Amino acid sequence: MNQECFVTGxxxxxxxxxxxxxxxKGHPVTLxxxxxxxxxxxxxxxxxxxxxxxLLSAVAGDLASPxxxxxxPARERVRQAAVxxxxxxxxxxxxxxxxxRAVNVEGALAVAELAASQGSRLxxxxxxxxxxxxxxxxxxxxxQTPSRTDWDQVYRRIGAYEGSKLEAHFRxxxxxxxxxxxxxxxxxxxxCGHSRSGHILATQPLAGLIGNLADGVLSAIPGSAAxxxxxxxxxxxxELMLAAAFDSEQVGREILALDERxxxxxxxxxxxxxxxxxxxxxxxxxxALLRLLLKIPGLPKLLRTEVESLDFIQSTRFDxxxxxxxxxxxxxxxPDIAQAIQATARYLASKPSAV
Length: 355
Ligand SMILES: NC(=O)c1ccc[n+]([C@@H]2O[C@H](COP(=O)([O-])OP(=O)(O)OC[C@H]3O[C@@H](n4cnc5c(N)ncnc54)[C@H](OP(=O)(O)O)[C@@H]3O)[C@@H](O)[C@H]2O)c1
Fold this sequence. Notes:
By secondary structure, the chain is α/β, with parallel strands linked by helices.
């Protein structure tokens, strides 16, 4: 039952935890790595997270290169993969459209092509905004015929990272349908640290928020009391990904990985502030006003906030019934999200360079 897997983005935050889980379950994993010389360090990290480093191997490649930059021996090595997990992405604010498209759209299509051509199941990481159809329509995405969407306009409205994630999703869906190939998409909410250890990478958006709070840069809560930043703990997310990847009933499905018990943003900030020993801001600042303020040159740097990050703070509530059913069926227990939030703050506070 220890089927082979191919993983892109394995060195990233979600990737590291996925590798720990896959190898703990005995799956041999081949990674797509831009810098395969970093494999020994990644093996060590995966072992620290409870996985088995010796089950990892790597092929050199790049999502932005034609055919993923894989040579013939590398293609041969990944041919046996039962599942291709696509987690690799340029995940940052302020990307150029060209850069975001090359890695996040063309790269995702190349991964889809590879999975389809060798009959592997594809498990792709999307993003929870793809489950907010009103939001997608507001952005001008044609949900009936996504190929009619003016993507340049979507990128202008929402920024290159999120625009490219949305475009990649619809184009991969279309490509896999054309090829009659097996696809499952997991849409993570903003990812919180491990529910017990709190492990998180400093580059993650939630770590940025915690850093701003610790340094006194967060003086007001964006939005109102109805606003929230939906979260999911990284350990539960990867459990869900693994369950979905090997469950034939999940082919063709989209799974929303979002903990609906996440407190509103004010509640999250209060939990974090309690751990960090700082005062939580009490005032709210309307998102529309914050957007305007962030247009003032120098202010994003001063407030350490990029306007693109505000789109994830919203008042929409999501239907997670299908996710709850999948979790029940695979006996996955949702960790306590409040404890995961606090563990994340404790983890970052214990690493002074990270906060
Ligand atoms: N974290 C969240 O809150 C969140 C929420 C929703 C969706 N997601 C999605 O989940 C996925 C994983 O996110 P993450 O937080 O784990 O991201 P991350 O920590 O930023 O990791 C990104 C990964 O992508 C790889 N990568 C970047 N450019 C590449 C390229 N040109 N070729 C090959 N690999 C490349 C990086 O490898 P290097 O080591 O070479 O840099 C790294 O392994 C992404 O698709 C992201 O959009 C994340």
